[in-house]
Amino acid sequence: MSNVTMEATTILSILKKKLAFLSGGKDRRSGLILTIPLSSDQTSMEELSATLDYLLSIPSEKCKARGFTVIVDGRKSQWNIVKTVVLMLQNVIPAEVSLVCVVKPDEFWDKKVTHFCFWKEKDRLGFEVILVSANKLTRYIEPCQLTDDFGGSLDYDHNDWLNKRLVFEKFTKESTSLLDELSIINDSDKSSLVDKDKSADCALLPSFDPETVLQTGHELLSELQQRRFNGSEVGGGQGGPAWCPMEEELLAQPQVMKLLDSLREQYTKYQELCRQRNKRTQLDEIHTKVMQVVTWLQGPGSELLKTHQTIGDSMRAAQALQQKHEEIESQHSEWFAVYVELNQQIAALLSAGEEEEVVELKALQQQLSDVCYQQASQLESRQNVLQAAQCFHSTTQELSQQLDGLLGMLCADVAPADGAAIQQNLKLLEEKLQTVEAGLASLRQKGGLLLEQMCNQPSWSLEETESPAGEQQDNVQHIQAVMEEMQLRKQRCEDMVDVRRLKMLQMVQLFKCEEDALQAVEWLSELLDALLKTHVRLGDESQETRTMLDKHRKFVDVAQSTYDYGRQLLQATVVLCQSLRCTTRSSGDTLPRLNRVWKQFSVSAEERQQRLELALSFHSAAERVLHQECVDPESLDEVDSSGKSLLDRLTVPVIFPDGSEQYFGSPSDTAAAADGVRERLLLVEERRLQLQEVGLHNDNVEEKLNGQEMRLDVIGEELSEKEEQEEEEAAQQNEELERATQDC
């Protein structure tokens, strides 16, 4: 076996194959158990030999002296491979092997074993070899020391063992190398102190990060103290004692602890060395950087600010000045960053209390702070002025645009379509005026704020107590001139708004009059339509007819009031058009429509009144004839003549002034009114017959009665024909309604 130390990384691919492993189990002599699981595939003897060399390099010499028990699992392999592996053990680890247990299949090797007996070769091999079944392996090894492959209870995870082995070897290698480097660096510190000018930065940089290596070592030690190196829980199987068979041989806790202690000691010295060297170099660097910062801030930095004091005359100019100021701030921020860093370094040196030049450091710190705070105050003041100037110019620009929009609206002709459009236009005008007033108030506020910011600017230095007066005065005059100009423009717009408001209110009134006049025409048309369609009945008696006549007169009075109201509105429209000088607008066809509808209504109302008066006369005469005992025949004839005249009047249409005709109601309504008249005529005629029967002689009674009966029959036939005609009309209307429904 080679004495050269092997690393897992060099044969990592071979170790992953698990050709052999140390599970941590021990035999009854406390010797370690080495397991060689042979598979059905061809096993490379070179790889197996390399695996065995690595595994045997792990235990200590004391552990090796107790010997190994080797388990060769040949249940999945061929006999010749098993035999080769056993013979190879003679060359690889002959002195360390105490016993080799070959786990055989149950049925396949019996004949072959007779040709080769390992026990006869014990002297030549140097160790004892036994063939045993897996279930009888516990005769030689306790079950708690066997893995589950052989029916034991010992846990073993090969991948976990390999990962932790890699971590251990990496830590050992890095920590050993780091210890050597830190020792060299710390030993060279005395010689480097003699030559202060010589930089030792290269010697102060070890190959590995000490913090990372220490953290890795602590994590590894914690893992080793809590678990076995192969990842199993400390202790035996369930209910077994807390026993770790590889605690001394494989876990390597003492070695890790020793490396950590040495590494912490050297790293502490290294940190102290670095701290002292950094302290020595910081002093000179601080003084140089402080003077650089002070020189630039009092020189070029102050000159940049002194040459930029204007506020601009527009938003674009203010934005350009702001951009230039941001460039100046950017240049200052680099030096302010250096100031912060220097201040922290000085504070750290002062807090240590080990420096002999504490007075000088405090003086440098005070000088640096005074200059930086003064310059920062100048930058902040200038930034506030520029921001206030941008707000002022932005508000000025917005207010100017608002005034231009308001003026454009005032100069445009007002030609709205209706009163609602005028109201909307007037509302928009008021909103624009309110916006202008709010904008002007905001401009005054921001202008005052800008003037205040300009007056509160701090002095530049101890030698200069105030900024250039010429630029300051120009800025103030510009701000005041802008506010005065905006005030004058706003006043002119207000005067124009007052004129426009009065005109638009008159136009609202004009449209309102026109709309109301049109509404009066609509109302009058609706009254006419109601008169012609619904005012058809004449009453069944004189009292009802008289009531209807009174209602008709009131109905006519309402129509008359509507007509007069419409004419008054149209007259007001003419007056408003003259006041507005609006020659393009007039009453249009509203007045002709109003007059036309009124004439039609007047003719219809007059006809309706005549019919009601005629019906009243008829019903009054009929009631007198029917209720009096002695009736003059002339009265009966008068009633008969009046009824026939009324019936004739119902069949006559209303003729309008333009020659058109219109009937009252529908034919059925007219027929119903006529039936009422006929029924009353029939009663009068019966009254006539009664009177004639009393006054005639017996000879003439039959003739007269026959004549009266004939007259009654004629009247009855007329009534029957009328009823049949109405039924036919109703049936025809029903057919037309059904046909229209089917078409839909």
Could you please describe the fold and organization of this structure?
It is a single chain. This protein is mainly α and 744 residues long. It has 19 helices and seven strands. It has helices at residues 12-15, 45-56, 61-65, 79-92, 110-113, 122-125, 158-187, 189-194, 210-226, 253-306, 315-352, 358-411, 419-455, 469-534, 542-580, 590-627, 633-650, 667-695, 698-743, and strands spanning 21-26, 32-37, 68-73, 97-103, 128-132, 654-655, 661-662. The strands form two sheets. The protein has a five-stranded mixed sheet, covered by helices on one side. Strand 1 and strand 2 (32-37) form a beta hairpin. Helix 12 runs antiparallel to helix 13 and helix 12 packs parallel to helix 14 (469-534). The protein is elongated, with a radius of gyration of 64 Å.
Number of helices: 19
Query: Which percent range describes the beta-strand content?
Result: under 5%
Helix content: 55-70%
Average residue-wise pLDDT: 77
Largest sheet, strands/sense/barrel: 5 strands, mixed
Key phrases:
two-stranded antiparallel sheet, single chain, about 750 residues, about 70% helix, 19 helices, 5-stranded mixed β-sheet, mainly alpha, elongated
Write the layout of secondary structure elements.
Blueprint: H1 12-15, E1 21-26, E2 32-37, H2 45-56, H3 61-65, E3 68-73, H4 79-92, E4 97-103, H5 110-113, H6 122-125, E5 128-132, H7 158-187, H8 189-194, H9 210-226, H10 253-306, H11 315-352, H12 358-411, H13 419-455, H14 469-534, H15 542-580, H16 590-627, H17 633-650, E6 654-655, E7 661-662, H18 667-695, H19 698-743
Parallel strand pairs: 2-3, 3-4, 4-5
Antiparallel strand pairs: 1-2, 6-7
